[in-house]
Write a structure and sequence with these properties.
about 300 residues; alpha+beta; Rossmann fold; Dna Ligase, domain 1; five-stranded mixed sheet; about 30% helix; disordered N terminus; binds zinc ion
Length: about 300
């Protein structure tokens, strides 16, 4: 019996080894995802040559994204499995927003989702990073465009030019601009076409035009693998993950509960076994400045 447990707890690879894993992506994200999952899970990665993930929404507004970030990733993974008839897929989805604590700082939240229909498993890895060039600007001259380019890691990182930020017509959205000649030509053309002399420029956030974003996707994939390797202590299913964080860390001065995180609650998707882990951040008392009583 003890030996059985030992075997099971050390055999994450046996869940995935030699299975085909479909990477549901079209922006070359497999470049960072594939080496990691092949090495860590022992899978054989396959991609779908003309898988068009744009149908699930794009950053450049021509197609709105439906549902939440996780729903979008799940839908991509499900579609990839329907197309291929396989049972194991990974899809990823990014989202850019203001940092919750610093509204003037942009951040990039990347999700990498593993869907395993054979074991009825869904495991999510994520990374939130302030390392992003995500920004946009209205411009009236070519000089303004070139200044914008200089600030946004162009030409290693691509740009998008369009007549107006509300453009939805594909014919007036120029994506993937990554040479100076192309930039000058596109900006001059759009300025001529514009009714009010103003056009819109923004960073191209598609992974293959954005090495900074690609790195964040790589980190989210590492987080996914770490989460897969967390096994349920009761049934050994992979992906034993936090489902809820609870506040209530005691104040270091008076001991009253504060809003800071006290514990994480982990739960198994398979057997529902759950476990509390106290002090997930390593801090055991809250600073009195966070306390309603000591610092009202
Ligand atoms: Zn379990
Ligand atoms: Zn206190």
């Amino acid at each position: 019996m003890i030996e059985d447990c030992y075997m099971l707890s050390n055999s994450i690879k046996s869940w995935f080894a030699n299975r085909n894993l479909v990477i549901a992506t079209m922006h070359k994200k497999e470049q960072v995802i594939m080496p990691l999952v092949e090495a860590e899970l022992g899978v054989n990665c396959i991609t779908i040559p003309d898988f068009n993930t744009d149908q699930f929404g794009t950053f450049t507004r021509d197609i709105n994204r439906r549902g939440t970030q996780i729903e979008a990733a799940r839908k991509k993974a499900q579609t990839a499995l329907e197309i291929t008839g396989e049972t194991l897929a990974i899809a990823s989805e990014g989202s850019f927003m203001s940092h919750p604590a610093f509204p003037f700082v942009s951040c990039d939240r990347e999700i990498v989702l593993l869907l395993d229909q054979k074991h009825d498993l869904e495991i999510i890895g994520q990374e939130i990073s302030t390392e992003t060039n995500h920004t946009h600007q209205s411009i009236k001259t070519l000089d303004e465009a070139l200044n914008f380019a200089e600030k946004t890691k162009f030409p290693d990182h691509g740009l998008v030019v369009m007549l107006s930020p509300k453009s939805i017509d594909k014919n007036y959205i120029y994506k993937g601009i990554n040479t100076e000649n192309k930039l000058i030509e596109t900006v001059e053309k759009c300025l001529k076409q514009s009714n009010n002399g103003t056009i819109h420029i923004e960073t191209d956030m598609r992974a293959m035009f954005n090495p900074t974003r690609m790195k964040v996707i790589e980190k989210a994939t590492q987080n996914l693998i770490k989460t897969i390797y967390q096994q349920c202590p009761q049934c050994y299913y992979p992906g034993f993950d936090v489902i809820k964080r609870q506040s209530g860390l005691p104040c270091g001065l008076c001991g009253l509960a504060t809003d800071s995180i006290l514990l994480d609650i982990y739960q198994c998707q398979q057997c529902n076994f759950s476990q509390e882990k106290k002090f997930p951040t390593g801090i055991e008392t809250a600073d009195p400045s966070q306390c309603q009583y000591c610092n009202p």
